[in-house]
Specification:
Elements lengths: L3 E5 L17 H9 L2 E4 L2 H12 L12 E4 L9 H9 L4 E4 L11 H10 L3 E4 L5 H9 L6 E6 L4 H18 L2 E5 L5 H11 L5 E6 L7 E6 H9 L11 E6 L2
Parallel strand pairs: 1-4, 1-5, 2-3, 2-4, 6-7
Antiparallel strand pairs: 7-10, 8-9, 8-10
Helix pairs in contact: 3-4, 7-8
């Protein structure tokens, strides 16, 4: 009988073992501690996460004996069957992203699809999603929203994409979400403030679940005034979700 693929949520940034319980539910920590095989976006951060779990829940075996195979953007499709082989032999495994929930804005989605094709049970566990938390805190439309991943890095293509997303948002009254490489946060906010209509709402959600968490929602015209005055959010090199809703 095949094992179970558990989708294990990770923290959204560095935290202490004392604060872990406020972010990752107790039963998720217990399930994680019982596993001996992980498929991870990043082995180093997964070991750090397991050390946090270990502070309260003994691991099934010494950390150095736990198997961690990596699955990231550089992993070819031909490698996926081998990652599932231990499950087909009866072992349970945990799929874990570098931050947040796996398989959402994460290369693990392809592995999950293959697991279904191979008859492997998939069990998602409860934990923090930066996208849903950002929608919750933004005040924008939570009945209809779409995640668009990363916008183009080329300024011209990015501006065109912003206009298209704003038009879609206005036509469907749909909140549009996207993320950016953290060191480009300022450039993206500037592009949004200058490229959107003055009344379009722009929300910036940074460091969600962390002590430094901050969510700000303003009209494009207000963000434009802030930027001209040098008033930037404190989001340089910090994970941030951007949301817009055209009105």
């Amino acid at each position: 009988m095949a094992g179970t693929l558990y989708l294990i949520p990770n923290t959204l940034g560095q935290t202490s073992d004392a604060a872990l319980g406020a972010i990752i539910p107790e039963h998720v920590q217990q399930t994680t501690a019982a596993l001996g095989y992980f498929i991870a976006e990043n082995a180093k951060t997964t070991r750090a996460f397991l050390k946090l779990v270990k502070a309260k829940h003994p691991l099934s075996r010494p950390l150095q004996e736990i198997r961690i195979d990596e699955l990231n953007v550089n992993t070819g499709a031909e490698r996926l069957p081998a990652l599932l082989e231990p499950l087909l032999q009866g072992a349970d495994a945990g799929l874990i992203s570098e931050a947040g929930v796996p398989a959402v804005a994460d290369p693990g989605a392809n592995l999950v699809r293959l697991a279904h094709e191979r008859g492997i049970m998939v069990r998602p566990l409860v934990g923090p999603s930066s996208l849903l938390l950002a929608v919750m805190a933004s005040g924008l439309n939570g009945q209809s929203f779409a995640f668009n991943g990363y916008l183009p890095t080329d300024a011209g293509q990015r501006s065109k994409r912003i206009r298209l997303l704003e038009e879609r948002s206005r036509a469907e009254q749909q909140t549009q979400l996207f993320i950016e490489t953290p060191y480009r946060n300022a450039a993206l906010l500037e592009a949004l403030a200058n490229g959107c209509q003055p009344g379009t709402l722009i929300s910036v959600a940074t460091d969600l679940t962390l002590d430094s968490e901050r969510v700000q929602t303003k009209r494009a015209s207000e963000w434009k005034t802030d930027l001209a005055a040098g008033r930037l959010p404190d989001f340089h090199k910090r994970p941030t979700v951007f949301l817009i809703l055209a009105r």
